[in-house]
Amino acid sequence: AGREARRAAPALSELWRGAKLPLPKAVDAMVALLCGGCCVFYAAFAADLFYALAKRLGLGTSREMVLGVLTCIPLAPLCLGDDLSVLKYSSLAGLLGIAYTASFIGKNGVTTDVAPIPATQTCSGTLVLANTLVVAFLCHYNAVQYYRELSPRRRTPDKFRRAVVRGAALTALVFAATLFGGARAFGSNALPNVLNNYDADSLGATVARLGTGVAILSGFPLMFAGLKAALDGCFKLRGPARPATHGALLAAIASVAATSSEDDIGLIIELLGSTLGVAAAYVVPGLCAARSSALEKKHRRSGALIAVGGMGLCVGGTYLTLKTHA
Question: What average pLDDT does the segment 216-235 reach?
Answer without folding.
Answer: 86
